[in-house]
Design a protein that fits this description.
Blueprint (H helix, E strand, L loop, with lengths): L4 E5 L3 H12 L3 E5 L17 E4 L10 E4 L6 H8 L8 E3 L12 H8 L6 E5 L4 H5 L5 E6 L2 H10 L4 E5 L2 H24 L3 H21 L4 H4 L2 H10 L6 H10 L9 H15 L5 H14 L11
Parallel strand pairs: 1-2, 1-4, 2-3, 4-5, 5-6, 7-8
Antiparallel strand pairs: 6-7
Length: 304
């Protein structure tokens, strides 16, 4: 099958960047925005074969859907698309978990669209602005369906795409890198010893991988683009919102926007406890971060 029309759900920076990149590759793109607005990138024009819509029904006949809303809105957004879903393969491009139920994105998808059998996850080292400008970008596409792999290879228009069936590992790697980026920014400002920073970084990575393996993930996933690749990008650069968020927490500064790593942190701890998986270093750093963010009204729901 040829996937000629791509429906993208979510017009934030990442959704819009994907839409622009996919349209450049030749597919027709329908970008859904809940309010008709979309992200703008300096020096980047919207391709002629990309349209922005507000009505979910405009995506009913798209050949494949990409889910790119923030993790906190995925469940609510899916409810709006349930009635017009037409058995398209769905590729989730959102990294994170539900902040209240601590479900991963595919668990939410299966709950809200139980008849969706062809689904997958896209994850990797992807700064939206660079994708919008056409920088060579690699990612991992996880899915158990041949349909998902074919759709992804046809439309994503990325420089390199690794295929895997490890859906759970790819999601935990994406959640984990947000946590490690947050921690990296925090300890960069609070731990003067480079030896100690390296120790904390490594032990926290080890514990996240341990949780992933306990859920059935493959170790190779954590050394691939969605693991090591995304970690290198997000945990070493202030451009990363989680890294800069960790730095802000270290200085007791006001946090700007939603820092996904804070909610991801809670998910990993909760899910680790559910399977009796010990995460002592993660919990030690988390207690220090909590002392600061308890003062932030934005994150009070974590402590209710």
């Amino acid at each position: 099958m040829l996937y000629k029309t791509v429906g993208i759900i979510g017009a934030g920076a990442w959704g819009t960047a994907l839409a622009i990149n996919i349209a450049r590759g030749g597919a027709n793109v329908i970008l859904w925005s809940f309010d008709g607005e979309y992200a703008h990138f300096d020096g980047v024009d919207m391709p002629d074969n990309l349209i922005v819509v507000r009505n979910p029904s405009d995506l009913a006949n798209a050949d494949v859907w990409l889910m790119v809303t923030p993790s906190s809105f995925v469940r609510e957004t899916l409810k709006n698309f349930t009635k017009i879903y037409n058995n398209q393969p769905i590729i989730i491009c959102t990294k994170g978990a539900d902040s209240k139920t601590h479900e991963f994105m595919t668990e939410i998808l299966q709950s809200e669209l139980p008849n969706c059998k062809d689904f997958g996850v896209l994850s990797g080292p992807q700064f939206a602005v660079e994708v919008a400008h056409g920088a060579p970008t690699g990612s991992t596409l996880a899915g158990t369906s041949q349909t998902v792999q074919e759709a992804g290879l046809q439309v994503l228009n990325l420089a390199h795409l690794d295929a895997t069936e490890d859906i759970i590992g790819t999601q935990i790697a994406g959640v984990g890198k947000n946590i490690i980026a947050l921690i990296s920014g925090y300890i960069h400002e609070t731990v003067p010893s480079e030896n100690e920073r390296a120790m904390i970084f490594t032990l926290c990575c080890h514990e996240i991988i341990k949780v992933g393996l306990a859920f059935g993930a493959k170790i190779e996933t954590f050394t691939g683009l969605c693991g090591l690749g995304d970690l290198f990008l997000s945990a070493t650069s202030p451009t990363s919102r989680n890294y800069s968020g960790g730095m802000a927490i270290a200085h007791n500064e006001e946090l700007k926007g939603t820092i996904e790593g804070i909610y991801a942190y809670e998910t990993i701890i909760v899910r680790a406890h559910q399977i009796n998986c010990d995460t002592p270093m993660l919990e030690e750093i988390r207690s220090k971060i909590h002392k600061v963010i308890r003062q932030s009204a934005q994150y009070q729901d974590l402590f209710e």
